[in-house]
Amino acid sequence: MKIAVVGTGYVGLVTGTCFAETGNHVTCVDINEDKINRMKAGEVPIYEPGLEDLFHRNTEEGRLNFTTSLSEGIKGAKVIFLALPTPPGENGSADLKYILQVAKDLGPLITEYTVIIDKSTVPVGTSELVHQAIAKNVSPDLFDVVSNPEFLREGVAVEDFMKPDRVVIGTESDKAKEILNRLYAPLVRQGNPIIFMDERSAEMTKYAANAFLATKITFMNEIANLCELVGANVDDIRRGIGTDSRIGKRFLFAGIGYGGSCFPKDVQALAKTSEENNYQFHILDSVMKVNEKQKTKLIPIIKNHFNNELAGKTIGIWGLAFKPYTDDIREAPALYNIEHLLELGCKINVYDPEAMPNTKELLGDTVTFSKNPYDAIENADALLIVTEWPQFRTPDFERME
Ligand code: NAD
């Protein structure tokens, strides 16, 4: 099948590459010229385990191409994925300007039946808005808009995409269902389901999933905070409850709060949707409040240790990415800690296996970027371990002395 993916970020590039791997001809479109040029030159612009091999194989075999031109990219495509950003707008709801602009631009370019698939995380009702924007310039018989939220996790995105727990497809069009069934067939051979539903339910499913997971993490962080006060070990609690099949083992590790490009904005957007519908979603309000506090939980501990005299202290930080196996630093708790510590007059040395280039772009020379974890703690007064990269779990303690 010939398909186009508009927006070639973490979701778009993985989607495009994986569908090329299953034998489709894919063109990835992005307005970022630098990114497109780098990909044309054979460079994978993001770090995602397993992506590089698939990227090279499929570009070399001519199944994966890149362009900045929307009209060129969608030429002959039966299916067009929108994997565009949906950052929080001023009032906290998802900003749809990227999606609606592309939808508007697509209208005049559609000349034969095409399925337009929204893969971005968008509020309930967005499919209808996309439909209206496209229909301004083309007959509604020539296209369907489908909601197909993406559940991949950064760090294991390729594996998640190739072997999804489930594929959720929101459409009532039989024609679109048939095409998507064919496209996804190679990914669900082991019997994992494609779940069809209407567009609104599919859009809500994605928010419900992310809000639930953010709540699970936050619940465990609160249990950890309480454990510290009562003298219990949260890691034992984790094992004690995670073995209960009703609870499950995942998302139970306590830490310094969730970050990343999805949970913070999606929880906020769902709370906004609730507010717009005059429903007060109490749990979400608490989750956001607790997570805000959790992100900088280590600061009072360090302050206390140094009797409030932090100015001039050198702090090493291991981990910048919002989680291991990614170079993504969007909403990473490390950044909040760095900001606070700099304000308190600390000198900061940082190390992360993958996220240093992105951090350098953001923070410039306000912090020192170290060659390895041990350089980051040379002459340091304290070390914060902020991302659970495996190499930080078993450091060489003799080298740290
Ligand atoms: P991203 O910022 O990594 O990528 C978006 C890309 O779209 C960028 O490369 C940007 O240059 C491009 N773009 C912006 N405007 C464009 C336009 N007019 N035409 C073409 N390209 C354009 O974002 P992402 O992390 O891939 O997320 C995309 C969507 O998927 C979001 O809604 C997000 O919530 C959702 N999502 C993300 C993840 C994740 O783990 N990152 C997982 C599931 C769902």
Task: Please specify the SSE layout and strand pairing.
Layout: E1 2-6, H1 10-21, E2 25-29, H2 33-40, H3 51-60, E3 64-67, H4 70-73, E4 79-82, H5 97-106, E5 114-118, H6 126-135, E6 143-147, H7 157-162, E7 167-170, H8 174-184, E8 194-197, H9 199-230, H10 234-242, H11 263-276, H12 282-294, H13 298-305, E9 314-318, H14 333-343, E10 347-351, H15 356-363, E11 368-369, H16 373-376, E12 382-385, H17 397-400
Parallel strand pairs: 1-2, 1-4, 2-3, 4-5, 5-6, 7-8, 9-10, 9-12, 10-11
Helix pairs in contact: 1-3, 5-6, 9-11, 9-12, 11-12
Nicotinamide-adenine-dinucleotide binds at residues 6-12, 29-32, 35, 83-86, 98, 101-102, 120-121, 150, 152, 154, 261-262.
* H/E element sequence: EHEHHEHEHEHEHEHEHHHHHEHEHEHEH
Arithmetic mean of pLDDT: 97
The total beta strand count reads 12
Largest sheet: 6 strands, parallel
Order of the strands making up the biggest sheet: 3-2-1-4-5-6
Gyration radius from CA atoms, angstroms:
23 Å
**Helix/sheet category:** alpha/beta
List the bound ligands: nicotinamide-adenine-dinucleotide
What portion of residues is helical?
40-55%
Strand residues, percent: 5-15%
Give the N-terminus to C-terminus distance in angstroms: 58 Å
Number of helices in the DSSP assignment: 17
Q: Which stretches are low in confidence, meaning pLDDT under 50 for 5 or more residues running?
A: none
Q: Oligomeric status of the shown chains?
A: single chain
Which geometry do the CA atoms define? globular
